[in-house]
Amino acid sequence: MKASILWCDKPSDEEAEDQIINSLCFNPDGSQLLVACGQKVLVYDTIDGALKSSLSGHAGAVHSISYSADGTRFASGGADKLVVIWTHECQGLLKYAHDYPVQCVAYHPSSHLLASCSSSDFGLWSPEQKNVIKTKLTGRITCCAWSADGQLLAFGLYNGQLIVRDKTGKERRLGYDPCALSWFVKDALKHESRAEFLLVGGANRECTIYSREGFKLGTVAVQDSWIWCCCAKPDGSAVAIGTYNGIVGLYDIKFGVVHGIHKDRYAYRDNMTDVIVHHLTTDQKVKVKCRELVRKIAVYKTILAIQTLDKILLYEAPGDVQHDMKYKATQKINKNIECSSMLVTSSQIITCQDKRLQCFNFTGEEIRVWQMDSPIRYMKLVGGPPQHEAILLGLKNGGVYQVFVNNAFPQLLAKQSSTIFCIDMNVNRTKIAVIDDTNTLYVYDVWTKELLYQEPNAHTVAWNGYFADMLAFSGEGQISIKVADFPVYKQHLQLPVRDAELLGLIVGFNGCTIYLLHLYAMSGVTVPVTDAVYRYINKKQLDNAYRLACLGESSQTWEALGHAAIEQNDYVIAKKCFSRVRDMKYCNLLSTYEEVAKRGETKPNINLGDYYAYAGRFQEAARNYQHGGAPDRAMTMFSDLRMFDQAKEYMVAGDVDQQKLLNKQAEWAMTMNEQRTAAELYLAAHDYLRAIDLAGKNKWSDLLASITSKLDKAQHDLLKRCARYFVEMKQYTYAADVYEKMGDIKSLLDMRIILNQWDEVFSLAKRYPLYHSDAYYNYGQYLAENDRFVDAQRAFYKAGRIIEARNVLQALTDNAVNETRFKDAGYYNWLLSKEYLLALSETPNDDLREQLFKKYNQCLILSELYYAYQNLYEYTTEPFVDTPSQILFNIARFIYHKLTNLKEIPPGISKFRTCYTACKIANKLNANKFSRQMIELMKDLTFTHNLGQKRTEIEQLALELRAKTFSDDSELLPLCYRCSHHSELLNPHGNECSNCGSPFVLSFLSFDVLPLVEFVLPHDINDEDAYNLLEQIPNSQLEAKPGGQTLNASTANRLIINEQFQREEKDPFLKKMTKYSANPNEYRPVVVDRSLLKAMDPSLVFVCKWPFPLRWKWYRIIVPETQIGRCRHCNKFFHNDEFELAILETGGCPFCRNKKEGDLTVGLRTKSNRLVNNPLKPNAYLLRQAVLSIFY
């Protein structure tokens, strides 16, 4: 640290008497210095020391002044016990008083808090509070000061104590009276960490700088009188002092740089008492706290040496971990060694003082002394083996020496005529660079002492730590880089010329980074070495170029070096270069060269041709291929480049197959997006696979057909590929032709199926039974898609797909219900029942047969319900229907009786809708009792979404019915033709007689009761035998029985009382059916034995044949005059007139929709009044009219 006076003044009053300078302070920007002199406050300009203003506001001497941190006000305190607050314009603002004279005042550094001290106490005031808080101290206060962060408040006492108040309150004894105390903040540059010191002046007549911890760092000024006050300029560049004899002085403060460097570790002093070690490569920093003044620093590898006032401290970082910066104290040399510079080696401390060079071990013992013949001006450690390190010395007389720590004799390296300013040795110790006081750089050969070259305008120099032939030197604001004997490369520094000349010092050169010391900051400057690399390449010194490029070069430079190495057949360097830039193209090429070399087949011309081809120098590549005896490579290269004319030249020379060239041309056409041309070229080159793919992907069916015609049927894979593309293009005819050519029957069948050519499909299935199932299965799908579901079902059965057939019908049923097409739903359920019946006849498993029988019955019931429900649904949803009320009434009763015997109501069928229809129509037909019963039943039912509005109508109807008789019209009551009993309209037993339990046989058009009585056969008679017995000629006793009556003209109009008895006597069946149980729950069917079968008229019997395992059903017509029709397919009965009309309208049975002529039967009356069952022909209506016209 150095202090120099800037200006000095001794103010006096009007009587020319000396005034004591009691206090000093700067305004925040440092442009003004306030001086408390006598009873006045003087304002000085800090630049030239001119007095700008003199302020009077105290009645006594002004003891202290202080400026606020924001520069808006300052305060003064004096012997008159007052504290005066002034504005920055030197106007008085306010005052407050103490009990004793005010000794000092100090503003807080970041607020308007003011500390004012009297003899025995101190107070704290701020504009925000009215009262001043005062605190007593044990001694008389002479001065006070805040720390820069405002956390500490220091007091100087008359008894010689220094008190720093914080949470603990620390004290330090000085040994003299401190009259002045001030914090000194140094923040010269942004790169420098903030440094904070304490200025103390007093009875020792000195102004001294102390560290924050209280350690003495140096002296600013020495006066003839006590230092009465002192303060630092805000920027830390100057210190003002005031003495007891009235002298005001401003001193400039300069802090010297104490540092040391070795390779990439740079150590420098911080805050005068600490050392920061900076790793220049990783930018790591670590602080070593010494807590006392640091005088010298030396660093070598991981060892750090720090010299303080009376000792040398040694630290070391772990050497086993690279870049580890955790320094730990190892040893201490308690010896005050006076020296101008210091170095440290692996085990010694080297100090220099004038001509004397001393070597100490780490215990402080002096090992060796070198006495030079001239003062030492420059010293640098160049390293070496442990305990054999070398040191370069530059003397004042121009001598340059090398000293080894284990050798007592210095070695002369060079001799200059002037003082040595800077020296350095290259990494392999073959060259030495010297700069003398003429600022000239000299480079010598160490062994021959020959001057290699010299450069002017050099201030500092450093050899590169990795490349022995490169150095850098600075001068005149520039950095110059010298490589071997190449021209110097210059780079300007981003510093003012004056600063660059003085402080832009090169202290290290590692790789491509030059380390410069500017003032207190170390910076790294990256310099390019590209020019030198290219110069080495031009000289074909590839090893030097590679080592220089390793310091840090761009990928472009590495590529250039790699290309040069390949051309010179140095494949090792070339591979390293291209690996660095990750150029896999050339790395693969060089790997190929290595494999060829391992096989002993290296041909330089071919290798060079490959390289030129990779580099785009095709003509040179072709010539090298030609010279190397491989013209085919040239042809391949030109064909790959679509340069087919050049390729043909080398094709002749190399006798290469023309087909290969055609393939190349086709590939080129592909890249030009001329795919049609490419396909034709592939076809010409007999590359059918690529031609097929191109034609198929572009859907060129004509070209693909042309290719197919050129293929032989043995080329199975190619033909299969063509067929696949035809299928993708939906050209199924072409695909079928290809599959036929291949003999692929399965694929051919698929194509015929897609084309819906079912004749060909069935022809193939007939020729190849293996595909019979697939043919009919696909045919079934086709029929189902075209709404031919019955045919589709048959096709599925032929294909053996039973489950699919049932699923089709079930899906159709569900859809029909969802779409309220209930007749269709009934029809589909009828078909399902037939399927289950067929499966029942073919299943030997009893458990499975039981399940199938249940499903059969379920589907049969659903078919009848849905068939009948269609009319009822239309009545409740449509505004007008043409179905007679009587029929709707019968349908509603039929559905209701069916639903009462079911556990669950089928989907789509509404029980409420059924009751509503029955109730409404019953009211019209005077079935009052039945209507009221329906209303009672509807109370417990849920309204559907479209019948909810009928609630009011039902309630009105209920009121109307209460006014009517509780009875039904007798004509509406169903008649049982077995017991001749009329049943109730609402029968809890369902559609059967409430008296004898005999089931009613209904017409499936009008749903009224038909005059049919069901009879059964004994167990010993099977269906076929019974049918044969029935078909025999009737017994003659039935034709003319004794005692019988004969109708003639005389008896035609006569009443015969015993007619019924006579009928029973003539027809034993009528007599047998009258025998029944009076309990309807004990229903006993009519059992017909063999004799009765022989006696029965077959024209009065309907035989409903069912397939196995169901038994046939037998019905007897009780009223022969009633004409009844029956569908032989579904075995449903109808009134003959209605049945004929329905057949004429629909063309088939209204229930099962069967249209076969032989399955539709009606009953006709003959001359003998005998009914016969005849099949109904297409002209059934005309035939019936003709017959009726004859007999009626």
TrEMBL record:
* SMART domains reported for this sequence: WD40
Span of domain IFT122 second beta-propeller? 259-522
The record ties this protein, via Pfam families, to: Beta-prop_IFT122_1st (PF23381), Beta-prop_IFT122_2nd (PF23377), TPR_IFT122 (PF25295), Zn_ribbon_IFT122 (PF25144)
**Domain IFT122 first beta-propeller, which positions?**
17-172
WD repeat feature ranges = 55-86
- Kindly list the GO CC terms recorded for this protein: intraciliary transport particle A; non-motile cilium
Could you tell me which residue ranges the IFT122 zinc ribbon domain spans?
A: 971-1013
Predominant location category = other
- Give the keywords, sorted: Cell projection, Cilium, Repeat, WD repeat
- Determine if Repeat is one of this entry's keywords: yes
User: TM spans, by residue?
Assistant: none
Q: Where in the cell is it found?
A: Cell projection, Cilium
Q: What is this protein called?
A: Intraflagellar transport protein 122 homolog
What organism is listed for this UniProt entry? Didymodactylos carnosus
